[in-house]
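In this section we walk through a basic example: taking a raw amino acid sequence and producing a predicted 3D structure, encoded as discrete structure tokens. The instruction is simple. Fold the sequence below.
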Amino acid sequence: QVQLVESGGGLVQAGGSLRLSCAASGRTFSRDVMGWFRQAPGKEREFVATISWSGDSTNYADSVKGRFTISRDNAKNTVYLQMYSLKPEDTAVYSCAAQSRGYYGSTFYSTQAHEYDYWGQGTQVTVSS
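The resulting token sequence is shown next.
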């Protein structure tokens, strides 16, 4: 019954913005590293953004730096991905994930999918040209 549920996806024009949310339930994720990944048809799942449990540290894929911002609200057990200046190549299913295997410190984050333990089902983001 541990769940991560994404929302906020949809169809947007190039240059537009979108805010994705990931609501966690069944346990607290306040001490977990959180991340966003995406997968386009025919392509491998790729890292997008990650944030340490405290929010003190973040990291982004080069392709989204300066356009996407990851944040979290531990009181709400929710993580967000604010996306600006969207491009057609951003089109993908976006999934959030939680790493809950241990305590890593307030600045630790992870860019590797295999290091995550819980995954949401994803939300579709489509950017038209």
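Looking at the output, two observations stand out. The chain is about 0% helix and 45% strand. The first strand starts at residue 3 and ends at 7. In the next section we compare this with other chains.
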